[in-house]
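Here we describe the complex-level prediction in full. Unlike the single-chain runs in Section 2.1, the two entities below were treated as one system.
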Amino acid sequence: MGHFANPEADVDRFRFRLGFAAILVLLAFAILLGRFVWLQIIQHDFYHTRAEDNRIALIPIVPNRGVITDRNGVVLAHNYSAFTLEITPSQTGQLDTTIDALAEVIDIQPKDRKRFKRLLDEAKNFESIPIRTRLTDAEVAKFAAHRYRFPGVEVKARLFRQYPLGEIASHAIGYIGRITERDLKWIEEAERQANYKGTDHVGKTGLEQHYEFELHGETGYEEVEIDAGGRALRSLKRIPPVSGNNLALTLDAKLQQITEQAFGDRKGSLVAIDPKTGGILALVSTPTYDPNLFVDGITPDNWKELNEHPDKPMVNRAINGAYPPGSTFKPFMALAALEMGKRTPNQAISDPGYYNFGNHQFRDDKKGGHGSVDMYKSIVHSCDTYYYMLANDMGIDNIAKFMGSLGLGQRTGIDLGKDDNGESKGVLPSQEWKKQRFKKPEQQKWYAGETISIGIGQGYNAYTPIQLAQATATVANNGVMFRPHLVHYLIDTKSGEKRQVEPKPIRDLQLKQSNVDVIRRAMVGVNKEGTGARAFAGAPYEAAGKTGTAQVFSLKGAQYKEGSTKKELRDHALFIAYAPADNPTIALAVLVENGGFGAQSAAPIARMVIDYYLLGKLPGGAAKEDPAAVEEDAEE
Amino acid sequence: MIDIVGTLRRSWQQLIAHIDFPLLFITLAIMSVGLATVYSATYDGNQRMLSQLGNMGVAMTVMWFVSRLPPQKLMRFAIPLYLLGIVLLVAVFLFGIKVNGAKRWLSLGFTRIQPSEIMKIAMPLMLAWYFQKYESTLQFKHYLIAALLLLVPFALIAKQPDLGTALLVGSAGFYVIFFAGLPWKVIAALGIAAGSAAPILWGMMHDYQRKRILTLIDPTTDPLGAGYHIIQSTIAIGSGGAIGKGYLNGTQTHLEFIPEKHTDFIFAVYSEEWGLLGNALLVFLYTLLIGRGLMIASAAPTTFSRLLAGAITLGFFTYAFINMGMVSGILPVVGVPLPFMSYGGTALVTLFLGIGMLMSIHTHRMLVKK
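The structure predicted for the assembly as a whole is:
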């Protein structure tokens, strides 16, 4: 097939093909023109009439948004119908005069006018816009009597989203709000815009956002004949909407409520997981907020208060707060040591109360040290020196490899928010991480000295409460890891079918059973004779746990005295636990911001939660701080 | 004084030395029609029109720069741009943002990009370079390799899935291979194969793609979605009649019956207001544009510039034909804007990159001969 180069012939052939292409172009354009002649000349009368009669409006019928219930059927989010007073601007004359006249009949506040103005700016010509929402029956009756005076104004029944439990579980459920330009872009990218005709609310955070397209349902429509002014004359055809799918959660609303109460007015987070499925039993972030405020469009004052509050109630600490794990890191370190053969359970070290590395002394909290410390004792009494040495023996990349396999420093993929936007990754320190994180070469190098404090959960370590809970659940479940999820199943409204969210294990760490047992015994020891013993005194079940304290602020040289430190500078208290130890049905991680020692404020919350979950025991109100709790794991 | 005038004149001539005026005037004419139509479509305010004016400024600056690069320089971009496109497409495949089952976007942290857009230019550039390189030793195997260079990005884009863009990129590459002399027998065989593969393709399509084709056959099956678009845009065109309803008087447009009226469906707005007369004028302008492009291709001195000019020109035709075809209801609705008319910055920049290349090819032709 090869041929000799012949430039002249090539050019001729090329020109011939150009001509051929030109003919095709002309032919194609001729077809187009033919189509235009067909539409615009031959069929013109037909289309002219159709345009003139384009008075058949398709009025979208917004579907009912899916209902969200907890694992026991307690309603967390539903809809209720209420009357609104709406104005169609194109059918009314002077808007201001109309509203002034309306105000004489129905109570219209300045904030109603403000909202109306805002909606008017966003709206298309033919939409009716609410001037008042939630009319009382008396107001509906009163307006009906004056109706004739107000063309273009009518009472409509609209559905409103409501969160009956208010602030409870708001960080999990999220909320809906009016569709903004950005939401619209999201909907368009998902090619759902047709289904959102007539819809003016969309999920903004949490489950409401993650499951938006499940919850929304299919928009129906009504073909209506309208007159020249746009008023509906008669209905021609009605395709009913299909309600959105309902969500049934793994969350236990009562447990959630008890946990939120246990926090009292303290800031923090708790995530409780069923270790055998990854189903989330409680997801708490305090302080919280009332999602009902957002449904009608939040008032600027409320928004300002929520958004600028120093305690940041809008931040979901469970998935967006990254904290050093403190000593709750130690059981994972010990497990890593066993799995990698760096330690045996009985191998003991001698703890003088400090560990020297280079010319720096890393101190243990207990003056004079713990004496001879084996693995059991290192966890039960939270011995720092043991883990300084262990970290040094393992090296940062071995630590990172094992902790990474437990899901630390990675998004868990929990079903909250949109895409990955909702969840923080935290920091899993490694040589590679440091290289990525810093720009200057001298900062990019990992120093062996930095590994030491990683061993006790300080240093660059930063994980979200949900990651800690997932890691704890994974250890509780003998190394079989599940993706944490809130939705147990979806109920398809069309078929009535339940669509289970499969609790598929994402990973099996292939842990050696004897190693897991060592850690379990030590964590049970924590609650029997160690740092968690006071919080779990008299528990009729065996719970495995570990306390932790994370430094907020480096107090250089100064001895940490919690009374003398300002509240914002107090350490964060942490606690991880699972129970019953031999067959766990709940695994959790608690974090109390500025709570001081883990045993002092985090462990008592965990006790309350587990007591309720296993025994059905109802506590009264907030967990008490235990000032007498002796904490042996305040670091350095 | 005279000297200053002379210097000014020389520098002015220097500035416009690589502008091809026929091309410039034709695109300006189409864009003026476009601007006026964007104004009519977004009548409640003129921000869209002003912002489109800004887009035009940016796009024409790009054109000016590209027109000054001689084709030899353009050739140097072929491989890097193509490889960049492939790498980004693979990155989309691996880490792309998944939106409703389609992975088309790549997040750069601060913004998102759609790498398939790069391929619209990189593909003809790469293939034109390839045939230039082997022009004297061209064998049949070179067509096969060229086909492979075409199919890899095509498959990656089709897999996203984004069949519309895949077809545009694929056709741009095919035009190069066709102009490079792909034997007629092979073309005929491909045509037959494509015809018989249609049922298989149907089986491979995603639900929403099938829905679009079914909607074309019977628009009433999806009256709130794509079917609604077709029904309403055909009514707009048909009711426009011979001379249209007059500027700013389109009822379909102003009663909000036409969706996406300033972007993909802008032709319906134009057609309603200017009628068959306006349509004929627009098609005439596109014919002029394509004619000028083909002339430039015909006069181009090297294989690379010939193939590139030919492919770019037919690319313009493809966009225009697909868009007008879909709005008037003879082609399925795919997301293709009407070139130089539709609102949108990215598409305009890509188009003017093409115009800039045509100008470069034409204004540097003598230099090459020397």
